């Protein structure tokens, strides 16, 4: 589909400022919407909202459908009557809760007891209206929520996220074992469902607030799911596993711009033949749920639908893999048949073949262009802003890139690249704004700029470094940086590039 000529800002929820250690769906999120509206932006791009499995990466989750409950706003729990104001007294509990960086362990130690307290209060004092809303939510989402809550309760009880190490009858999901553990862990299962109810309620309210102000929520869907996830445990027949549930073939990408040994993600590969027998029902449900949450959706690693890099389980890196033909357009066609047009953007970065471009064009999806990739070689203009096609989404950089200023400072040291950059950087004043302008002024239908780039920040503000196991995803936006001058500047540049009237 074609998208309107517009622009937006990339800033994950976790990056928003507050006193609770991690950005959430509270006041700062609403003020960010106000900032976007005032600045003439019509899209807020965020990273996946799902609960991280390992390494705090939102791209590796233990559920493709559940929400990360650390994003629930404690302040809104008070406003909604689920907590008392005194419950938020930080005191000694706030030790380690940084305003500038997310310490995920410290945040979890602080927030988990608050969520438990809110659940206990709800059970004792919840209104009939709230109880009715919870019951309706549980019924409507039972198709994924029942297994998720069961999985989460078991994971906590065993203190083990690797479900292949659970008792054998649970690994194989024997009905008697599931019933017995459901009874034993009934309170924990209800607690899990309550958290998802609150997550959904707070998110839907924020999305409605944004939509009412002309801001579309632009989400991100990883193509793969983690092995240590309810998705794999509950649907073992859909993945490449042995009889004990251990992956036999895993996902990754070969050596590329980001890594000389490739990226070994470790996610189990899909059994696309089995999915085809169901007319891709699991994927249709995934798309349906995604568009309950978002207005637009980026499909991460879109090229995996055309061909995917398959690595035998047990390899130490992604070098010794092979390309395997993917399902092509079939999952999308199946979903469109039931759901109608899908407002998707294809993440078509990396080692992209003509066949991937053909698949993207067949589906009518815009691809991505990233300015930072456009100045490597003089004759490679694919990512250079002056060559962007209209049906594309243009970025200064993504969550996987350095900030635009961190990138520029390295590139200007290379004489060849410095000469190429002279196309867009003409003097030493506000270099980041000149680089942003090249993207805004391009022909691309949508232009997305990370908030770090609008602020002219360096490499210290980078969100993620692919291939680095620790230290990513922690950056936070300091309070009071979204000034009136910044708003005016963004709005002016957006108007000049004909992205708002």
In short:
This protein has helices at 27-38, 74-79, 104-125, 128-140, 142-158, 168-171, 175-184, 186-212, 230-234, 272-277, 281-293, 330-339, 354-363, 404-411, 415-421, 431-440, 451-454, 484-496, and strands at residues 6-10, 43-45, 216-222, 249-253, 263-268, 296-300, 307-312, 322-325, 344-346, 367-370, 392-395, 446-450. With 501 residues, it is α/β, with parallel strands linked by helices.
Describe the fold and architecture.
The chain is of the alpha/beta class. The protein has a single domain, classed as Glycosidases (TIM Barrel). 39% of the residues lie in helices and 11% in strands. An eight-stranded parallel β-sheet has the order 9-6-3-2-1-12-11-10. A four-stranded antiparallel β-sheet has the order 5-4-7-8, with no helix packed on it. Helix 11 crosses helix 12. The chain is globular and about 70 Å long. The mean pLDDT is 95.
Question: Secondary-structure blueprint of this entry?
Answer:
Blueprint: E1 6-10, H1 27-38, E2 43-45, H2 74-79, H3 104-125, H4 128-140, H5 142-158, H6 168-171, H7 175-184, H8 186-212, E3 216-222, H9 230-234, E4 249-253, E5 263-268, H10 272-277, H11 281-293, E6 296-300, E7 307-312, E8 322-325, H12 330-339, E9 344-346, H13 354-363, E10 367-370, E11 392-395, H14 404-411, H15 415-421, H16 431-440, E12 446-450, H17 451-454, H18 484-496
Parallel strand pairs: 1-2, 1-12, 2-3, 3-6, 6-9, 10-11, 11-12
Antiparallel strand pairs: 4-5, 4-7, 7-8
């Amino acid at each position: 589909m074609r998208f309107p000529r517009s622009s937006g800002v990339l800033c994950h929820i976790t990056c928003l400022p507050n006193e609770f250690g991690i950005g959430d769906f509270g006041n700062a999120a609403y003020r960010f919407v106000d900032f976007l509206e005032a600045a003439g932006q019509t899209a807020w791009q965020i990273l996946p909202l799902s609960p991280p499995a390992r390494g705090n990466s939102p791209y590796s989750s233990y559920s493709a459908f559940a929400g990360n409950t650390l994003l629930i706003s404690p302040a809104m729990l008070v406003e909604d009557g689920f907590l008392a104001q005194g419950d938020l007294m930080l005191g000694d509990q706030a030790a380690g809760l940084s305003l500038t960086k997310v310490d995920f362990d410290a945040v979890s130690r602080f927030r988990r007891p608050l969520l438990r307290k809110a659940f206990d209060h709800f059970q004792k004092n919840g209104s009939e209206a709230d109880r009715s809303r919870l019951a309706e939510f549980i019924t409507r989402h039972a198709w994924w929520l029942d297994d998720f809550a069961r999985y989460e309760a078991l994971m906590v009880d065993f203190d083990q996220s690797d479900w292949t190490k659970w008792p054998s009858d649970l690994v194989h999901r024997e009905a008697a074992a599931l019933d017995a553990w459901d009874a034993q862990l009934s309170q924990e299962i209800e607690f899990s469902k309550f958290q998802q109810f609150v997550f959904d309620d707070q998110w839907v309210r924020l999305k409605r607030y944004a939509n009412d102000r002309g801001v579309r929520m632009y989400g991100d869907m990883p193509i793969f799911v983690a092995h240590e996830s309810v998705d794999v445990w509950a649907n073992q027949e859909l993945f490449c596993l042995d009889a004990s549930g251990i992956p036999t073939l895993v996902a990754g990408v070969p050596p590329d711009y980001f890594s000389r040994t490739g990226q070994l993600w470790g996610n189990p590969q899909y059994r696309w033949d089995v999915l085809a027998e169901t007319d891709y029902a699991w994927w249709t449900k995934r798309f349906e749920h995604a568009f309950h949450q978002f207005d637009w959706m980026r499909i991460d690693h879109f090229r995996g639908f055309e061909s995917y890099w398959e690595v035998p389980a047990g390899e130490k890196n992604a070098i010794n893999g092979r390309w395997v033909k993917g399902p092509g357009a079939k999952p999308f066609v199946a979903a469109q048949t039931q759901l109608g047009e899908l407002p998707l953007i294809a993440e078509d970065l990396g080692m992209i073949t003509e066949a991937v471009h053909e698949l993207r064009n067949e589906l009518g999806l815009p691809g991505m262009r990233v300015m930072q990739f456009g100045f490597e070689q003089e004759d490679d203009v694919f990512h250079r802003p002056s060559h962007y096609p209209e049906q594309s989404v243009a970025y200064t950089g993504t969550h996987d890139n350095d900030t635009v200023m961190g990138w520029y400072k390295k590139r200007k040291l290379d004489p060849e690249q410095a000469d190429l950059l002279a196309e867009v950087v003409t003097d030493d004043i506000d270099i980041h704004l000149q680089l942003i302008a090249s993207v805004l002024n391009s022909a691309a239908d949508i232009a997305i700029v990370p908030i770090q780039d609008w602020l002219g920040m360096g490499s210290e503000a980078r969100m993620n470094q692919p291939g680095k196991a620790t230290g990513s995803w922690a950056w936070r936006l300091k309070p009071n940086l979204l000034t009136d001058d910044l708003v005016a500047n963004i709005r002016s540049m957006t108007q000049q590039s004909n992205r708002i009237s």
